Amino acid sequence: MGGADKMPAGRLSWLLLGVVLAFGVAASPAQASRNTHYDFVIKETNVTRLCQEKTILAVNGQFPGPTIYARKDDVVIVNVYNQGNKNITLHWHGVDQPRNPWSDGPEYITQCPIQPGANFTYKIIFTEEEGTLWWHAHSDFDRATVHGAIVIHPKRGSVYPYTKPHKEMPIILGELWNVDVEQVLLESQRTGGDVQISDANTINGQPGDFAPCSKNATFRMLVEHGKTYLLRVINAGLTNEMFFAIAGHRLTVVGTDGRYLKPFTVDYIMISPGQTMNMLLEANHATNGSGDNNRYYMAASPFFTNIGLPVNDKNTTAILEYTDAPPSAGPPDYPVLPAINDTAAAAAYTSQLRSLVTKEHPIDVPMEVDEHMLVTISINTLPCGANETCIGPGPGNNTRLAASLNNVSFMTQTVDILDAYYYSISGVYDLDFPNKPSFVFNFTAPDPTVEYQLTKRGTKVKVVEYGTVVEVVFQDTAILGAQSHPMHLHGFSFYVVGRGFGNYDKDKDPATYNLVDPPYQNTVSVPTGGWTTMRFRAANPGVWFMHCHFDRHTVWGMDTVFIVKNGKTPGAQMMPRPPNMPKC
């Protein structure tokens, strides 16, 4: 938590459970007492950022929120008390939740929201996950301030497949608005225009040295020469993919999305909203007064390619500081980061992600596919409603911005889809989400015809039999500008077996797939003007949301739902509905 926010002494125990301090001290696994029950109180909290005090929603008065610690195969209970002023839900991003969609969290997909004054208990079931995940609100734009890290350590008796770090540190990338994010969303919905860009990007809740009124609260990570540190980097931002680097230090990437990777060493990373990256940092700069600086900026900058849209292009900084070196008089060294639109730099990083494959950490890439899907990703428009004045693109101010998958702009209902499925309530959703786009054109050619912009709303879902191997090719389109999209699937991790630029070629591109050691992720960045192929085995019965993790695209309709039917054995069937589910 930032040093600018005061906290009662009684909350110190929460800090020891892993909330990052502005002075760079956080609970290491040895320090943090293991806890399988957490109480999350969501309420309005005052914070001071960018020269002004503002009110935000936060958990237990902390921004970012508390870290959840677990071990592989743990079950963690989180009691959520909504003392805020609006409906809310929480999601445990990257946790498969086997047979338990009831605790997955997306609003009106697997549950009705927790209303003000109400409470709900989530049951988080960890199985294969090991590494870093995170939790966040899954209602409106609430996750801007309602989020935190999930740290999953190996089982007792097991060890990391790399050097045990001296300390571990969550590094949460986020963004801030000076105005209430709820009003940002409502204004966009009222006008049909784009969402107001944020006022700052942040590291662990702080904008850093170069933002107004922020220098005294900049996050600091304290290190000692010769020690190894594990950075658990999370992109919790709503809007941008980010480059991240630390001046004077290379980073060895060892994991992503709660799974291990073959280690590789880089000068920078690229991380999409929703993703996590685990990296080893060797504190190896001289501390003998030889003239080296004892402070180094860690910095993050946006990666954004759609030049037709406004963007918060501000960098955010934190400081890596050697405690066993003489203080330096000058400013910290600053890292070299790629340019904001450096697609080649982003692709060069992403291409190095490969699963660690060992006896202790095997993988199981499906070789045969039962169901093939080609899913186009588009920014679109919808007609402005009667008696509305809209400011969406196109002539006459008569459209509002929308988004779609296979030209279906997803529309949430007032009954959650899981209940509708469980109780066979008709009229809530349709079963005909298409396996391919309704019309084919040169998806990635610049400036496609205006007629392609228009989409249609619908609540269409994809139903698959238990155990089906599904291959999804995500295809970006240039409608209203090509851009990358972080696509996230609830309930599953998936193997990212292929990617490329241009239009996917079903006859040629499968020959380029990596079926040996593809990364196993829950959120994948579909490249600008390109495609990505992922495969998963649908062995988790339930209702599972799939959506872009740019939040404005989610609310515009760049979503769908997989319904995985029950299998034949009790262990392949959804758990019964808990009696305390929130009511709509």
Automatic annotation (TrEMBL):
Record-linked InterPro entries: Cu-oxidase-like_N, Cu-oxidase_2nd, Cu-oxidase_C, Cu-oxidase_fam, Cu_oxidase_CS, Cu_oxidase_Cu_BS, Cupredoxin, CuRO_1_LCC
GO molecular function, one term: copper ion binding
UniProt catalytic activity: 4 hydroquinone + O2 = 4 benzosemiquinone + 2 H2O
Coiled coil regions in record: none
EC number: 1.10.3.2
GO cellular component, one term: apoplast
Cofactor binding, note field: Binds 4 Cu cations per monomer.
A Pfam family reported for this protein in Swiss-Prot or TrEMBL: Cu-oxidase_3
Record key words, sorted: Apoplast, Copper, Lignin degradation, Metal-binding, Oxidoreductase, Repeat, Secreted, Signal
Compartments, as annotated in UniProt: Secreted, Extracellular space, Apoplast
Signal peptide as annotated in the record: 1-32
Keyword Transmembrane: no
Keyword Oxidoreductase among UniProt keywords: yes
GO annotation (BP), single: lignin catabolic process
Residue stretches making up the Plastocyanin-like domain: 42-156, 168-324, 438-567
Cofactor(s) the protein requires to work: Cu cation
Family, as annotated: Belongs to the multicopper oxidase family.
NCBIfam families on file: laccase
Role this protein plays: Lignin degradation and detoxification of lignin-derived products.
Name of protein: Laccase
Source organism of this protein record: Miscanthus lutarioriparius
